[in-house]
Amino acid sequence: MENQAHNTVGASPCEAELQELMEQIDIMVSNKKLDWERKMRALETRLDLRDQELANAQTCLDQKGQEVGLLRQKLDSLEKCNLAMTQNYEGQLQSLKAQFSQLTNSFEKLRLHQMKQNKIHRKELSHKEEIPFELSNLNQKLEEFRAKSSEWDKQEILYQTHLVSLDAQQKLLSEKYNQFQKQTQNYQTQLNGKNQCIGDSSSEIPGLVCQSDPGCETSERDEFIIEKLKSAVSEIALSRNKLQDENQKLLQELKMYQRQCQAMEAGLSEVKNELQLRDDLLRVIEMERLQLHKELLKMGECQSAQENKRRLESSYSPSIEETQRKKKELFSVIQDQPNQEKKINKLRNQLYQEEEYHNSEQERMRNEISNLTEELHQKEITIAAVMKKAALLERQLK
Known about the structure:
Keywords: Coiled coil, Cytoplasm. By secondary structure, this protein is mostly helical.
């Protein structure tokens, strides 16, 4: 009995110490568990925030992709409009060049014909008259017309260089757009990789929680897991910063594309204004050409009438003087008729020959007048054709 009592007395303090140790262990485990649960909640909240940030970044990228698609559509429409406008303008320029060359050729022909007539007129009337003032005005207008044509050629060259620069800008924009698409694809792949990493980390968390039983887990394992989670959180923060930087770069590139589009629109408006100015200049040139044509017609009619009058006067004046002289000689010879019959016959023969010559000269003058009228008729026909072409040109321009 005494031995049993002694054993019970010896066992009771050990059990009390064991119970105290077990209670302390339970308290430590519960404290660790609470601390672990707090840390896990904080990490879960951080992960939720990171998921939200990634979702926001994904939505931003989707919006940027939509904006890129809209910009691509705008670029395609601008390219189509530019191609159509350039083709139209090139066709109009080619037609205007052809018509302008035809007009210049016809004007040069008229000018050469006028110069030939002026040379003939100068040779005939070098000692009587000088060069008319109207011809000098016409030559001045012709020089002005040539100067304007040279200016138009320069403007055409500038327009072609501007079109080449616009094509180069379009090519650069298309290349930048392709680069932008490649960057967006790379960003999308990076986001998918980050999402997979986050999914892997989220799948690891419940395993870690399951493994965190108080009887199996040690403090070193807890610290390793915490360090691992901290490194994952830091990687997520770095990726978020990278995404923010890339988003800023994308925004800057989009602003640059918008500025380039605005510059292209301004260039197109300038080209339209230049074409409007060219149309106005062509109208002014057409009016000046019509005035020059009218003045040339008036000058040609006046010169032809003056030349015909002078030729007739020059052809009739010697014959009239000779007939008067012959009459005087006949009157003088009649007084001495018996002695001068032979002379009278000779004079009659001479008069007959002169009359025939005079008649032949009259016929020749009539033929020349008819030829001149035919030439004037042909000139009127050519002028009417030129007027028709000018009317067609005005219709095409309208």
